Amino acid sequence: MYGGCLSLQTIVFDRMEESEFPPFITEKIFPGSMLPRQREILAASDRVLSLVNVRNDALDYARTCQEWVQRIEAAKPELITMVGAHKTNEYVQYLRMSAAAFERQQFGLLRLKFRSYANACPPISTVLTVFFKRLTCPTFTKLHAKSLKPSRSANSWRPSSSAPGRLKRKSASTSLTI
């Protein structure tokens, strides 16, 4: 028997090593972030959430990035007025790099569906707190569970400043449905 559901869409490392990840993305587009690996997501869900379904739609997302480049190029004069040529060109570069990485399956676009265990006792919010804490801080222990605080962005969970841990991981694209 199951309780609540979690749908998670996130970009992950697929065939690319972390050392190959373009610094341009972590410095200019998503400062301080790093992509997870599928195994890290599954490890974070172990005994907390039951995996119902997983798909990797990397090639679909490559097409999405290419479409965004075309739309930016079509609206470039207006975008340059709004955010400047430098920022507009950075995003075109990011989307082109991303499209190529998805096409080569260096990045993956995972779409996962989980269910919580109904007899797990804690409410789904607590289950999700443990899941995201494990994902963002692999050295998670029960002693640190209370230090988790959601950031202002609905798609980014990070340990609070008092929480011990290593590099904060944040998905570049995350969608939650509870």
TrEMBL record:
InterPro entries: CFA/CMAS, SAM-dependent_MTases_sf. Residues 151-178 are annotated as: Disordered. This is Uncharacterized protein. It comes from the Bacteria. It comes from Massilia rubra. Residues 151-164 have a biased composition (Low complexity). Belongs to the CFA/CMAS family. SUPFAM superfamilies: S-adenosyl-L-methionine-dependent methyltransferases. Pfam families: CMAS. Keywords: Lipid metabolism, Methyltransferase, S-adenosyl-L-methionine, Transferase.
